[in-house]
Specification:
- It is a single chain.
- By secondary structure, this protein is α+β, with helices and mostly antiparallel strands.
- It folds into 2 domains: 78 residues, Roll (SH3 type barrels), CATH 2.30.30.230; 285 residues, Alpha-Beta Complex (Fumarylacetoacetate hydrolase, domain 2).
- Helix content is 15%, strand content 28%.
- Strands 6, 7, 8, 13, 14, 16, 17 and 22 form an 8-stranded mixed sheet that branches. The chain has a 5-stranded antiparallel sheet with strand order 4-3-2-1-5. The chain has a 5-stranded mixed sheet with strand order 9-26-25-20-21, with no helix packed on it.
- A hairpin with a 5-residue loop joins strand 25 and strand 26.
- The longest helix is centred in the N-terminal third of the chain and has 16 residues.
- The radius of gyration is 21 Å and the shape is globular.
- The chain binds calcium ion.
Length: 394
Protein backbone atom coordinates (compact mmCIF):
# COMPACT_ATOMS: atom_id res chain seq x y z
CA UNK A 1 0.00 0.00 0.00
CA UNK A 2 1.04 3.62 -0.51
CA UNK A 3 1.09 5.91 2.53
CA UNK A 4 0.62 9.63 2.21
CA UNK A 5 0.99 12.33 4.82
CA UNK A 6 -0.30 15.92 4.58
CA UNK A 7 2.42 18.50 3.89
CA UNK A 8 1.75 20.25 7.19
CA UNK A 9 2.02 17.07 9.29
CA UNK A 10 4.53 17.23 12.15
CA UNK A 11 5.26 13.55 11.43
CA UNK A 12 6.17 13.62 7.74
CA UNK A 13 9.25 12.23 6.05
CA UNK A 14 11.50 14.88 7.68
CA UNK A 15 10.80 13.43 11.14
CA UNK A 16 10.54 9.61 11.31
CA UNK A 17 10.84 9.22 15.08
CA UNK A 18 11.28 5.86 16.79
CA UNK A 19 8.95 4.34 19.35
CA UNK A 20 7.67 1.04 20.72
CA UNK A 21 4.07 -0.07 20.21
CA UNK A 22 1.81 -3.03 20.79
CA UNK A 23 -1.69 -4.09 19.90
CA UNK A 24 -3.92 -6.24 22.10
CA UNK A 25 -2.36 -9.68 22.43
CA UNK A 26 0.93 -8.80 20.75
CA UNK A 27 4.38 -8.15 22.20
CA UNK A 28 5.85 -4.62 21.98
CA UNK A 29 7.97 -3.89 18.88
CA UNK A 30 9.77 -0.93 17.38
CA UNK A 31 7.91 1.38 15.01
CA UNK A 32 8.09 4.76 13.41
CA UNK A 33 5.29 7.28 13.23
CA UNK A 34 4.35 8.50 9.77
CA UNK A 35 1.45 10.95 9.83
CA UNK A 36 -1.18 9.29 11.99
CA UNK A 37 0.10 5.81 11.13
CA UNK A 38 2.38 3.61 13.16
CA UNK A 39 4.64 1.54 10.90
CA UNK A 40 6.26 -1.64 12.23
CA UNK A 41 9.97 -1.50 11.35
CA UNK A 42 10.76 -5.21 11.56
CA UNK A 43 8.07 -5.82 8.94
CA UNK A 44 8.91 -2.75 6.84
CA UNK A 45 12.67 -3.26 6.76
CA UNK A 46 12.90 -7.02 7.32
CA UNK A 47 15.30 -6.62 10.24
CA UNK A 48 14.74 -8.45 13.53
CA UNK A 49 16.60 -5.84 15.58
CA UNK A 50 13.28 -3.98 15.46
CA UNK A 51 11.28 -6.97 16.75
CA UNK A 52 12.65 -6.08 20.21
CA UNK A 53 10.53 -4.39 22.90
CA UNK A 54 12.93 -1.44 23.13
CA UNK A 55 15.20 0.67 20.95
CA UNK A 56 18.33 -0.37 22.85
CA UNK A 57 19.55 -3.15 20.49
CA UNK A 58 19.22 -0.81 17.51
CA UNK A 59 20.78 2.16 19.32
CA UNK A 60 23.76 -0.01 20.31
CA UNK A 61 24.59 -0.53 16.62
CA UNK A 62 26.00 2.98 16.35
CA UNK A 63 25.86 6.17 14.38
CA UNK A 64 26.64 4.85 10.90
CA UNK A 65 23.91 2.29 11.23
CA UNK A 66 21.42 4.93 12.47
CA UNK A 67 22.11 6.98 9.34
CA UNK A 68 21.78 3.94 7.06
CA UNK A 69 18.48 2.88 8.63
CA UNK A 70 17.10 6.40 8.35
CA UNK A 71 17.91 6.43 4.63
CA UNK A 72 16.40 2.96 4.15
CA UNK A 73 13.31 3.97 6.10
CA UNK A 74 12.84 7.09 3.98
CA UNK A 75 13.02 5.01 0.79
CA UNK A 76 10.75 2.27 2.11
CA UNK A 77 8.00 4.69 3.17
CA UNK A 78 8.05 6.32 -0.27
CA UNK A 79 7.37 2.97 -1.93
CA UNK A 80 5.00 0.08 -1.41
CA UNK A 81 4.52 -0.51 2.32
CA UNK A 82 3.37 -3.96 3.49
CA UNK A 83 -0.18 -3.42 4.81
CA UNK A 84 0.46 -5.70 7.80
CA UNK A 85 3.12 -3.21 8.98
CA UNK A 86 0.68 -0.29 9.18
CA UNK A 87 -1.68 0.54 12.06
CA UNK A 88 -3.69 3.65 12.84
CA UNK A 89 -2.07 5.49 15.73
CA UNK A 90 -5.36 5.36 17.62
CA UNK A 91 -5.35 1.53 17.56
CA UNK A 92 -2.03 0.96 19.33
CA UNK A 93 -0.55 1.30 22.80
CA UNK A 94 2.73 3.19 22.99
CA UNK A 95 5.35 2.07 25.52
CA UNK A 96 8.48 3.50 27.10
CA UNK A 97 10.63 3.49 23.94
CA UNK A 98 13.97 2.52 25.47
CA UNK A 99 15.34 0.91 28.59
CA UNK A 100 16.69 3.79 30.62
CA UNK A 101 20.18 2.95 31.88
CA UNK A 102 21.46 5.82 34.02
CA UNK A 103 19.70 9.16 34.28
CA UNK A 104 21.26 12.56 34.94
CA UNK A 105 19.46 15.90 35.05
CA UNK A 106 21.26 19.09 34.14
CA UNK A 107 20.39 22.74 34.84
CA UNK A 108 21.30 24.34 31.51
CA UNK A 109 18.94 27.33 31.31
CA UNK A 110 20.45 30.53 32.65
CA UNK A 111 16.97 32.04 33.01
CA UNK A 112 15.71 29.08 35.06
CA UNK A 113 18.84 28.91 37.20
CA UNK A 114 18.65 32.64 37.92
CA UNK A 115 14.93 32.51 38.72
CA UNK A 116 15.42 29.56 41.09
CA UNK A 117 18.39 31.33 42.67
CA UNK A 118 16.21 34.37 43.41
CA UNK A 119 13.44 32.15 44.83
CA UNK A 120 15.59 29.74 46.89
CA UNK A 121 18.30 32.21 47.99
CA UNK A 122 16.50 35.59 48.14
CA UNK A 123 19.19 37.19 50.33
CA UNK A 124 21.97 36.54 47.83
CA UNK A 125 22.42 39.44 45.38
CA UNK A 126 23.95 37.13 42.73
CA UNK A 127 21.31 34.62 41.60
CA UNK A 128 23.77 32.27 39.84
CA UNK A 129 26.22 30.30 41.96
CA UNK A 130 29.94 30.78 41.12
CA UNK A 131 30.28 27.48 39.21
CA UNK A 132 27.28 27.92 36.90
CA UNK A 133 28.98 29.45 33.85
CA UNK A 134 32.01 27.16 34.14
CA UNK A 135 30.34 23.76 34.03
CA UNK A 136 26.93 22.29 33.26
CA UNK A 137 25.63 21.64 36.77
CA UNK A 138 23.76 18.33 37.15
CA UNK A 139 22.78 15.60 39.58
CA UNK A 140 22.29 11.86 39.23
CA UNK A 141 18.61 10.85 39.30
CA UNK A 142 16.54 7.69 39.33
CA UNK A 143 16.03 5.86 36.03
CA UNK A 144 13.53 3.35 37.43
CA UNK A 145 10.82 5.99 37.92
CA UNK A 146 10.90 7.29 34.34
CA UNK A 147 7.52 6.58 32.76
CA UNK A 148 5.98 7.00 29.34
CA UNK A 149 3.52 9.75 28.45
CA UNK A 150 0.01 9.03 29.66
CA UNK A 151 1.07 7.42 32.94
CA UNK A 152 -0.65 8.92 36.00
CA UNK A 153 1.61 10.67 38.50
CA UNK A 154 0.88 9.84 42.14
CA UNK A 155 1.32 12.78 44.48
CA UNK A 156 4.35 11.88 46.59
CA UNK A 157 4.52 11.83 50.37
CA UNK A 158 7.56 13.13 52.12
CA UNK A 159 9.17 15.28 54.72
CA UNK A 160 8.97 19.06 54.51
CA UNK A 161 9.71 22.07 56.64
CA UNK A 162 8.88 25.61 55.61
CA UNK A 163 11.38 28.22 56.88
CA UNK A 164 9.02 29.41 59.64
CA UNK A 165 7.97 25.93 60.81
CA UNK A 166 9.36 24.76 64.17
CA UNK A 167 9.90 21.16 63.00
CA UNK A 168 9.53 19.03 59.87
CA UNK A 169 6.21 17.35 59.11
CA UNK A 170 5.31 14.35 56.96
CA UNK A 171 2.53 14.15 54.39
CA UNK A 172 1.57 14.56 50.75
CA UNK A 173 3.48 17.28 48.92
CA UNK A 174 1.58 20.57 48.86
CA UNK A 175 3.84 22.20 46.27
CA UNK A 176 3.82 19.75 43.37
CA UNK A 177 5.29 21.22 40.19
CA UNK A 178 6.54 20.38 36.72
CA UNK A 179 9.75 21.04 34.83
CA UNK A 180 9.48 21.14 31.03
CA UNK A 181 12.73 19.83 29.58
CA UNK A 182 14.26 17.95 26.68
CA UNK A 183 15.93 14.60 27.31
CA UNK A 184 18.90 13.33 25.29
CA UNK A 185 19.25 9.59 24.69
CA UNK A 186 22.75 8.13 24.53
CA UNK A 187 22.89 5.56 21.73
CA UNK A 188 26.46 4.40 22.22
CA UNK A 189 28.37 5.11 25.40
CA UNK A 190 32.02 5.15 26.43
CA UNK A 191 34.16 2.68 28.37
CA UNK A 192 35.22 3.64 31.88
CA UNK A 193 38.28 5.84 31.79
CA UNK A 194 37.73 7.05 28.20
CA UNK A 195 35.85 10.36 28.25
CA UNK A 196 33.80 11.42 25.23
CA UNK A 197 35.48 14.45 23.62
CA UNK A 198 33.08 17.34 23.21
CA UNK A 199 33.54 17.33 19.42
CA UNK A 200 32.55 13.62 19.28
CA UNK A 201 29.53 13.86 21.56
CA UNK A 202 27.08 14.27 18.72
CA UNK A 203 27.93 10.88 17.23
CA UNK A 204 27.01 9.22 20.55
CA UNK A 205 23.62 10.93 20.80
CA UNK A 206 20.78 8.94 19.28
CA UNK A 207 17.83 11.24 19.81
CA UNK A 208 15.69 13.61 21.81
CA UNK A 209 12.55 13.18 23.91
CA UNK A 210 10.23 15.50 25.77
CA UNK A 211 10.79 15.28 29.50
CA UNK A 212 8.67 16.36 32.46
CA UNK A 213 10.69 16.32 35.66
CA UNK A 214 7.80 16.38 38.17
CA UNK A 215 9.09 18.12 41.28
CA UNK A 216 7.79 18.32 44.86
CA UNK A 217 9.13 21.75 45.78
CA UNK A 218 8.43 21.46 49.50
CA UNK A 219 10.25 18.13 49.79
CA UNK A 220 13.05 19.46 47.56
CA UNK A 221 13.56 22.71 49.49
CA UNK A 222 14.06 20.88 52.80
CA UNK A 223 16.18 17.97 51.55
CA UNK A 224 18.46 19.52 48.92
CA UNK A 225 21.09 21.08 51.19
CA UNK A 226 23.96 20.26 50.72
CA UNK A 227 23.83 17.30 48.26
CA UNK A 228 21.10 18.32 45.80
CA UNK A 229 17.71 16.98 44.72
CA UNK A 230 16.69 13.47 45.73
CA UNK A 231 13.18 12.38 46.80
CA UNK A 232 11.63 15.64 45.64
CA UNK A 233 12.32 14.46 42.09
CA UNK A 234 12.66 10.68 42.07
CA UNK A 235 8.98 9.69 42.38
CA UNK A 236 8.20 10.12 38.64
CA UNK A 237 9.49 11.68 35.42
CA UNK A 238 7.52 11.51 32.16
CA UNK A 239 9.05 11.05 28.70
CA UNK A 240 7.35 11.25 25.32
CA UNK A 241 6.68 7.99 23.51
CA UNK A 242 8.63 9.04 20.41
CA UNK A 243 12.39 9.55 20.21
CA UNK A 244 13.16 12.15 17.54
CA UNK A 245 16.52 11.20 16.00
CA UNK A 246 19.23 13.82 16.27
CA UNK A 247 19.69 13.13 12.54
CA UNK A 248 16.22 14.66 12.00
CA UNK A 249 17.22 17.86 13.82
CA UNK A 250 19.99 19.14 11.54
CA UNK A 251 17.63 21.92 10.42
CA UNK A 252 16.99 22.92 14.04
CA UNK A 253 20.60 23.49 15.09
CA UNK A 254 21.33 27.00 16.29
CA UNK A 255 24.28 28.55 18.13
CA UNK A 256 23.96 28.57 21.91
CA UNK A 257 23.89 32.00 23.57
CA UNK A 258 27.37 33.52 23.84
CA UNK A 259 29.33 31.67 26.53
CA UNK A 260 31.25 34.22 28.56
CA UNK A 261 33.58 33.68 30.39
CA UNK A 262 35.25 31.24 27.99
CA UNK A 263 34.82 27.61 28.98
CA UNK A 264 37.71 25.26 29.76
CA UNK A 265 39.19 23.45 26.72
CA UNK A 266 37.40 20.13 27.36
CA UNK A 267 34.05 21.96 26.94
CA UNK A 268 35.11 24.18 24.03
CA UNK A 269 33.47 23.77 20.64
CA UNK A 270 34.17 25.98 17.62
CA UNK A 271 30.44 26.48 17.34
CA UNK A 272 28.54 25.31 20.42
CA UNK A 273 25.15 24.23 19.15
CA UNK A 274 21.71 24.27 20.66
CA UNK A 275 18.36 23.40 19.17
CA UNK A 276 15.56 25.65 17.96
CA UNK A 277 12.82 23.61 19.60
CA UNK A 278 9.70 25.47 20.67
CA UNK A 279 8.00 23.91 23.69
CA UNK A 280 4.45 24.43 24.84
CA UNK A 281 3.01 23.67 28.29
CA UNK A 282 -0.69 22.96 28.57
CA UNK A 283 -2.26 22.93 32.05
CA UNK A 284 -5.79 21.52 32.20
CA UNK A 285 -6.27 22.25 28.50
CA UNK A 286 -4.90 25.79 28.54
CA UNK A 287 -1.49 26.75 27.17
CA UNK A 288 0.27 28.63 29.97
CA UNK A 289 3.83 28.90 28.65
CA UNK A 290 5.96 28.55 25.50
CA UNK A 291 9.58 27.94 26.57
CA UNK A 292 12.21 28.29 23.80
CA UNK A 293 14.92 25.63 23.88
CA UNK A 294 17.12 27.92 21.76
CA UNK A 295 17.78 30.04 24.89
CA UNK A 296 19.59 27.18 26.68
CA UNK A 297 23.13 28.16 27.69
CA UNK A 298 24.87 24.77 27.52
CA UNK A 299 25.02 22.56 24.42
CA UNK A 300 23.94 18.91 24.73
CA UNK A 301 27.44 18.05 23.44
CA UNK A 302 28.98 19.93 26.37
CA UNK A 303 26.68 18.15 28.81
CA UNK A 304 27.77 14.71 27.53
CA UNK A 305 31.45 15.67 27.49
CA UNK A 306 31.14 16.96 31.05
CA UNK A 307 29.26 13.83 32.15
CA UNK A 308 32.21 11.64 31.12
CA UNK A 309 35.22 13.93 31.69
CA UNK A 310 36.14 12.19 34.96
CA UNK A 311 36.19 8.82 33.20
CA UNK A 312 32.64 7.85 34.11
CA UNK A 313 31.25 5.34 31.61
CA UNK A 314 27.95 5.81 29.80
CA UNK A 315 25.82 3.08 28.26
CA UNK A 316 23.24 2.58 25.55
CA UNK A 317 20.00 3.95 26.97
CA UNK A 318 21.57 6.53 29.26
CA UNK A 319 19.39 9.59 29.43
CA UNK A 320 20.38 13.08 30.38
CA UNK A 321 17.83 15.85 30.62
CA UNK A 322 18.52 19.49 29.95
CA UNK A 323 17.01 21.00 33.05
CA UNK A 324 13.97 23.23 32.95
CA UNK A 325 13.67 25.17 29.72
CA UNK A 326 12.89 28.79 30.58
CA UNK A 327 13.22 31.83 28.37
CA UNK A 328 13.65 35.43 29.47
CA UNK A 329 9.97 36.40 29.63
CA UNK A 330 7.22 35.29 31.99
CA UNK A 331 5.30 33.49 29.24
CA UNK A 332 8.39 31.37 28.57
CA UNK A 333 8.91 29.89 32.04
CA UNK A 334 9.13 26.11 32.14
CA UNK A 335 8.13 25.46 35.76
CA UNK A 336 5.13 26.63 37.76
CA UNK A 337 7.32 27.77 40.67
CA UNK A 338 8.69 30.36 38.25
CA UNK A 339 5.39 31.08 36.53
CA UNK A 340 3.67 31.80 39.87
CA UNK A 341 6.87 33.13 41.50
CA UNK A 342 6.97 30.64 44.31
CA UNK A 343 3.18 30.72 44.64
CA UNK A 344 3.10 34.49 45.28
CA UNK A 345 1.56 35.26 41.87
CA UNK A 346 -1.25 32.75 41.26
CA UNK A 347 -2.43 32.15 37.70
CA UNK A 348 -5.92 31.40 36.43
CA UNK A 349 -6.00 28.18 34.46
CA UNK A 350 -9.17 27.03 32.72
CA UNK A 351 -11.19 29.27 35.05
CA UNK A 352 -9.58 28.11 38.29
CA UNK A 353 -6.87 29.77 40.38
CA UNK A 354 -3.64 27.80 40.69
CA UNK A 355 -0.21 28.08 42.22
CA UNK A 356 0.93 24.44 42.27
CA UNK A 357 -0.76 21.27 40.98
CA UNK A 358 -4.04 19.99 42.43
CA UNK A 359 -5.14 16.35 42.29
CA UNK A 360 -6.80 15.70 38.94
CA UNK A 361 -4.76 18.35 37.11
CA UNK A 362 -3.27 17.30 33.80
CA UNK A 363 -0.15 18.71 32.19
CA UNK A 364 0.83 18.13 28.56
CA UNK A 365 4.17 19.23 27.13
CA UNK A 366 4.47 19.42 23.36
CA UNK A 367 7.18 20.73 21.06
CA UNK A 368 8.11 21.23 17.46
CA UNK A 369 11.21 22.25 15.53
CA UNK A 370 12.15 23.21 11.98
CA UNK A 371 12.66 20.14 9.82
CA UNK A 372 14.98 19.81 6.86
CA UNK A 373 13.10 20.98 3.79
CA UNK A 374 10.99 23.75 5.27
CA UNK A 375 8.27 22.09 7.35
CA UNK A 376 8.15 21.45 11.08
CA UNK A 377 8.64 18.23 12.96
CA UNK A 378 6.88 17.23 16.17
CA UNK A 379 7.91 15.46 19.35
CA UNK A 380 4.46 14.15 20.27
CA UNK A 381 3.59 14.83 23.87
CA UNK A 382 4.59 14.18 27.46
CA UNK A 383 1.25 13.90 29.28
CA UNK A 384 0.57 13.21 32.91
CA UNK A 385 -2.31 13.57 35.35
CA UNK A 386 -1.83 14.04 39.07
CA UNK A 387 -3.68 11.58 41.27
CA UNK A 388 -3.95 11.59 45.04
CA UNK A 389 -1.41 9.42 46.77
CA UNK A 390 -2.48 7.14 49.60
CA UNK A 391 0.25 6.55 52.16
CA UNK A 392 1.03 2.82 52.26
CA UNK A 393 4.38 2.89 54.05
CA UNK A 394 3.04 1.92 57.48
CA1 LIG B 1 14.92 19.18 36.28
Amino acid sequence: MRLSVPDDSLFGSANLPYGVYSRPGTAPRVATRYGDHVVDLALLLGDDVFAAPSLNPFMAQGHERWAAVRAALTDALAGDVPPEAVHPLADVTLHLPFEVADYVDFFASEHHAANLGRLFRPDNPEPLLPNWKHLPVGYHGRSASIVVSGTDVVRPHGQRKAPGDPAPVFGPSVRLDIEAELGFVVGTGNPMGEPIPVADAESHLFGVVLFNDWSARDIQAWEYVPLGPNLGKSFASTVSAWVVPLLALTGAKVPTPVQEPAVLPYLALDEPWGLDVGLEIEWNGEVVSRPPYSAMYWSPAQMLAHLTVNGAPTRTGDLFASGTVSGPSKGERGAFIELTWGGAEPVTVAGEVRTFLEDGDEVVIRASAPGVGGGRIGFGEARGRVVAGEWTGG
